[in-house]
Design brief:
The protein is an all-alpha fold. It is built from four helices and no strands. It has one domain: Flavocytochrome C3, Chain A (Flavocytochrome C3, Chain A, domain 2). The radius of gyration is 17 Å and the shape is elongated. The protein binds heme C (4 copies).
Length: 117
């Protein structure tokens, strides 16, 4: 019981006050409720499924960022949602964050040109 209380408190008290340049600003503009992602009001456990309710199915997401690209073409960046190494298996949160700056995982090794997230 005590633990439940503490986690509810954290959920309501520790919302970052400045979310400049982040996805949450774009989502907030749409009037999205916290519960759209934090199903059952849980503070941290956000699953890919919560995103795919609106952005899925995954095939549609893959199609939205498809580009014609030959291997090793440095002018065109590969589809982040269907990559050579990982296919469609990466969790959204490998790259997208809601309340902090997103970081494209691929850029640990590559320098692709994507629009800023
Ligand atoms: C309730 C529906 C809904 C949910 C849930 C949702 N989104 Fe969105 N999201 C939207 C809408 C609507 C837009 C604006 C679409 C547009 O501008 O084309 C958007 C925009 C975006 C964008 C594009 C922002 C840009 O730069 O243009 C990304 C990336 C994104 N969402 C990722 C996510 C991720 C990751 C999750 C899960 C944590 C998520 N969304 C959950 C509805 C949702
Ligand atoms: C841990 C390092 C690492 C990460 C992370 C990584 N790659 Fe790679 N990738 C490589 C290496 C090494 C090669 C082989 C060398 C080459 O061809 O550039 C490669 C090759 C590729 C190629 C074939 C070469 C080309 O330009 O056509 C593509 C496409 C590619 N990676 C896409 C991605 C994408 C998309 C991501 C993120 C989802 C990613 N990689 C993440 C290391 C990585
Ligand atoms: C490997 C990194 C990576 C992963 C994993 C990833 N994304 Fe993305 N996402 C990107 C990048 C990079 C872009 C911008 C693509 C561009 O430049 O066109 C993007 C764009 C988007 C957009 C905007 C699409 C549009 O039409 O412009 C949405 C929505 C989105 N991602 C949702 C998701 C969801 C939901 C997941 C999980 C199922 C996910 N992404 C997984 C890197 C990623
Ligand atoms: C579009 C999906 C989405 C919406 C809407 C959303 N969140 Fe989140 N939230 C996430 C994700 C994903 C994480 C995991 C950390 C991250 O990506 O920033 C998270 C993490 C958190 C955390 C844990 C602290 C942290 O930064 O890791 C808190 C607290 C939180 N959210 C509160 C809220 C509140 C309060 C609202 C409503 C005002 C809200 N969230 C709306 C997706 C969302």
């Amino acid at each position: 019981m005590k633990r439940l209380f503490v986690s509810i408190l954290i959920f309501s008290a520790s919302v970052p006050s400045v979310w400049a340049n982040q996805l949450s600003q774009k989502h907030a503009k749409l009037g999205m409720e916290c519960q759209a992602c934090h199903i059952n009001n849980k503070a941290v456990l956000v699953e890919d499924e919560a995103c795919l309710v609106c952005h899925g199915p995954i095939s549609k997401l893959v199609a939205s960022t498809h580009r014609d690209r030959k291997p090793h073409d440095t002018a065109v960046s590969p589809n982040p949602h269907n990559s050579a190494h990982y296919g469609t298996t990466l969790s959204c949160f490998t790259c997208h964050s809601e309340h902090k700056q997103s970081e494209i995982y691929c850029h640990q090794c590559h320098a692709f040109k994507y629009k800023s997230l």
